[in-house]
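Following up on my earlier thread - several people asked me to post the actual chain instead of describing it. Fair enough. Here it is, all 392 residues.
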Amino acid sequence: MTINLELSEKLAATVERTHLAAEHVLRPIARKYDLAEHEYPTELDDLAKLANDAEKAGATAEPAADKRSEASLVAVLAALEVSWGDLGLLLSMPGRGLGNAAIAAVATPEQLEKFAGVWAAMAITEPGAGSDSAAISTTATRDGDDYVINGEKIFVTAGSRADHVVVWATLDKSAGRAAIKSFVVPRDTAGLTVDRLEEKLGIKASDTAVLRFENVRVPAENLLGSPDIDVEKSFAGAMATFDNTRPVVAGMAVGVARAALEELRDVLADAGVEVDYDKPLASQHYAVSEYVRLEADVEAAYLLALRAAWMADNHIPNSKEASMAKAKAGRAVTDATTKAVELVGTLGFSEVMLLEKWARDAKILDIFEGTQQIQQLIIARRLLGKSSAELK
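Reply from S.P.:
Thanks for posting it. Predicted structure:
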């Protein structure tokens, strides 16, 4: 099956609309909420409503005969454009939580209908688990028609704001990875508390919470997917979530990187340094050669993200490609934003420009949804045909 990475008219229109919202709504308030950590951006409520109305209108207008999904591509492109406006505000957008991607990845058709319209944070990381999602110790114990969840989760994006939380927990610690399942938990459920909100380096517009689960009771049907512990499939069901979210995070990284490179190019132009693609880089200013190198890296990350999303939309296994996109984009955005600050100099280091903010925001994109090292490990396993037990 061939892949065409040129955007269709429909996707191009989505990009244009989203970019306008990012430019006129998010970018102007980016510094405001960077300086007001933990203050809820009320401007997002109207924007989220407009986005939801547009999605409903698009779904209604979609011809019944057209069964080809572009949901993953739309998610990546939208994340890119909104992150160009502001990454922290994207992560605070009502109805656009990382938990929503988990629901989309593994929920049954009945669950997709039940949880349509919720805003779901995703609670995976634990104090003792780090990047190893398989080391989860939060438990979910069956009790009649319910599961009872106990444990602690850290670094939960929008954990204090979302109305639901997708929690990863184990049904049976002795069964290892295969027993890890995800549950949709309303945030107002008895026993679910917000212990604290983190003070962070970047993405300050987005709250990051520590959540505690003490005998939290949820209906059995809130377990996403199958409740069966299938040792053959092992961790595959839970990890399918990341195959959906990692290309989106790569899209976020490309958006932040593009913002920084656009600012850098404007500064260079004001200083009389123009980028000329027709001349050898060796004969141009050092800053131009660095700009072109960074631009090429970001473009490569963009194409990798599109490929991983396209594969997801076409039901082609994309675990390796999703990790490749995430790894490349995580490196590209940290390199692009840091180098932009360096080349601009003292202005880039000050709050006069947003460059220093983008450099702070960028680092999380190389960490969450799996660190750089975890992505490289996954890619190596897929290329070499090794299991997690064989290659650690």
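Residues 236-270 form the longest helix (35 residues). That should answer part of your original question.
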